[in-house]
Amino acid sequence: MAQRNRRLTWRLALLMFAMFVGTGGIVVRLVQVQIIDHEYYAAQADAEHLHRTVVRATRGAILDRNGFPLATTVGAFDVYIDPRSWSDISVARRSADTLGPLLGRSPDELLAEALQFEAGDYLAARSVSSQVGLQLFELAPTGVRLVKTSKRSYPEGDLASSLLGFMGRDQVGLAGVEAAFDLELGGVAAEIYFERDGLGNPIPFGRSFGEEPIAGGDIHLTIDRYLQRLIENKLNQEIERHGATGGTIIVMDPDTGEVLAMTSQPSFRLSQLDLESEDQAELFRPRAVTDVYPPGSVMKTLTMATAIDLGLVGPGTTYLDSGVAEVEGGEPIRNWDFSAHGMTTMTELLQFSLNTGAVWLARFIGANQFYDYIGRFGFEDRTRIGLGGDPEGIVRTHEDDDWYPIDLATNSFGQGISVTPLHMITAVSSLVNGGLLMQPYIVREVADADGVRTFDPVVVRRVISEETSRTMVQMMNAVVDGMPTHGAQVAGLSVGGKTGTTTFPNSNATIASFVGFAPAPDPQFIMLVKIDSPQTSPLGGVVAAPIFKDLAPQIIAYLGAQSGTLAFVEREP
Predict the structure, then answer these.
(1) pLDDT tens across 432-445, in order?
(2) In the chain, what is the straight-line distance between the N-terminal and C-terminal CA atoms, in Å?
(3) Does any domain span residue 16?
């Protein structure tokens, strides 16, 4: 009996010891978990329950020069499906039938793709409208989750598509102003943390914390929406009328370098944007800024200004036009119409657009000074307008190994040299604004959280003297108003300008162009018109000049109404 009691006592003692050791282990573990390693396990718990998401800032608006919105940001939703919630096929079918019509997708396709998705939630649609989002909130289909986002809205439709550009799916600007000013427009995103349930949905009244995003700034362009629509409609009509492959129109303030309107074709429509299309990718660039071309006879104005500025000639200086110019290393150069004018003044050289006269001037100027002025006019630099793809002009000078005297001859009348339309209108602006090369620009101001930043006109350099500029205005006015039936003449308005016709060796391609201004002698605007491969006629005077004639009265009237000043200046008979 005593032996039995001793065994029970030992067993009880062992049991109590085991209980003591176990309890001690639990206590030690609790101390370790709740005190020693508290921060580590608290972080793990937060990681399980707290979800981190990046909240993008509201993107700033792009406005025209008068404050009218061209691109704004509106609320939208991304739609996700949790495939785990669709494990019951009948539940999945009901949700897909509800969701599909609202997203414009086939319920069967939606169901198949969601159930095959194995890497988290399936993205069913991006940036659906707030109206669709609210409908989904009310219907609450099983497994469907909405995430707030935003998308671009275009109050003026497809106006200035290539200039405005667009954003990618990550809300980063990819082209045009959206890309060039992405930092200013995009603002500063913020990280938000919130408690979520087992399905990843936010817990009502759960913890949430983080900073608020900083909204992006608004960009005010120099572009005027009325003028932009005016030239876009006109360019599209004229391309169709002449069976052309494309074209460009730019309207600029010659005194400041502000681009008032700019359009090129072929291009794309924001309403039909397809980032997956390789064919459409070719249309995304703003061709007026990015694409170079030989300017043709418009270049004769720069050659003439160079000679006048050097004191070599004046408007009444004469030369003998035999209709042909022999140049070392090349074929004889003839006038575009194979004419010969005998004793000819410098003004008549421009009026009749004589190639032989330009060659004569270039020889008189000499290669050193000719290419020095080409550099002054900005052809060897980027325009620095602030958009991507802004190239330097293509100029082969006498310092290059592959240059020949024939290059000087052909360059004098705009062949063998390539510049962008923006280069050309900026250079010609210096001829009529008092002699200053202005840096073209398209942004007037940026208004963001840090205040308002204004962009003022920038003088790149003086190219010609004020006296030379006044002379060139008079001569270019004589080119238009001094020639009977010139295609750019406008009744009651004093106009100056110069046509250009570009041909390409071994090709049927041509470019018809005209650069003009009004009114003389104090231009309120300058316009470049360029039509690519017109089928009706290759001549700038037939194709491009009449486009200026049609647009100029409307532009002058509009600018006059905007400024409250009399816009028309009577032409002398």
Answers:
(1) 999 999 999 999 99
(2) 146
(3) yes
